Amino acid sequence: MAKEKKYVKVESEKPENNDVYGKNEHGKIIKIEQPGDPQKRATCKRVWAIILWIIAIAFEVIGILKLTEVISWFSELDTMWFLLICIGLDLLFFIPGSLLRKKANHIDPASEKNKTNFWIWNNLWTILSVLAFLPIIIFVFTDKKLDKKTKGIVGTVAIIALAIAGFASYDYNPVSMEWLERAEQEVLQVSPSGTVYWAQYSKKYHVDKDCPAFSNSETVYEWTVRDAYERWLTDPCRRCIPEYKWDDIDEDIDENIEIEDNEDAVENKDENLWIWDLLWWLFE
């Protein structure tokens, strides 16, 4: 006997304003302008990611100051254990910040027109992981007062923490603005409402709420493609969205990118100076 499904609309995390697409009189998919800024959720997550990274750096600095005897906090605690605690807290705050950053990049992705900018934007926290752990590693191994045992243990733990932070913050499946727009348009080709569905353990999003993939699921969640991307559900179910529907969408997107590239080249010949783009992104 088939299980009775419960359909849940994801209201709690609905953005106040989101991009909405529809079809014009010629049947072409167009963006319908909505009031407000759809990037609020992503901006909020990026702000929290920066705050958590600053706290992580603060614990690293405290460990270095203790090591160099600038501060004498918890003098009764062995230096090795003090440093290990600082490194642990550094990692504890760094990881959630990197995950928030990746989640924000899935909600509000960057354009992949400039490959260098795109890689740096998506893996900025991997670069910052070096700042969060490498300085204390250098101080530990160059400190002349530490015994070999303490250097070996603390140094090894710090190197492992750096590796964990680097692997955790690296985006192995980055999302671009072009890919998200294409996914939204692809869904609209099948479902004019733009609604997608997923279950608790889904690895892909679905357009058909009665997809056979939900045969053993009691609860099916429904919302937008952007919301699915936020949950790292970046691939569509090909039972719901046939492969052939990519062709027409790809042509439209490639044409729009080419037009935008030509306009940008005229307006700003120095756009390829990626360092300025990075600084703008970082402090926007």
- Helices and strands, in order, run as EEEHHHHHHEEHHH
The Rg value, from CA coordinates, equals 24 Å
Low-confidence stretches: 11-38, 244-274
Structural class: mainly alpha
Shape: elongated
The main sheet orders its strands as 1-5-4
Helix share bin = 55-70%
The strand count comes to 5
In total, the number of domains comes to 2
Describe the structure.
- It is a single chain.
- By secondary structure, the chain is mainly α.
- It has two domains: 6-35 and 176-253, no CATH class; 40-169, no CATH class.
- Helix content is 56%, strand content 7%.
- The protein has nine helices and five strands; from the N terminus they run E-E-E-H-H-H-H-H-H-E-E-H-H-H.
- The chain has helices at residues 40-67, 79-107, 115-122, 124-142, 148-169, 177-190, 225-230, 246-267, 274-283, and strands at 6-9, 20-23, 29-32, 196-198, 219-223.
- It has a three-stranded mixed beta sheet with strand order 1-5-4.
- Strand 2 and strand 3 (29-32) form a beta hairpin.
- The longest helix is centred in the N-terminal third of the chain and has 29 residues, at 79-107.
Can you give keywords for this protein?
single chain, 284 residues, mainly alpha, three-stranded mixed beta sheet, two-stranded antiparallel sheet, 5 strands, 7% strand
SSE diagram, text form:
Blueprint: E1 6-9, E2 20-23, E3 29-32, H1 40-67, H2 79-107, H3 115-122, H4 124-142, H5 148-169, H6 177-190, E4 196-198, E5 219-223, H7 225-230, H8 246-267, H9 274-283
Helix pairs in contact: 1-2, 1-4, 2-4, 2-5, 3-9, 4-5, 6-8
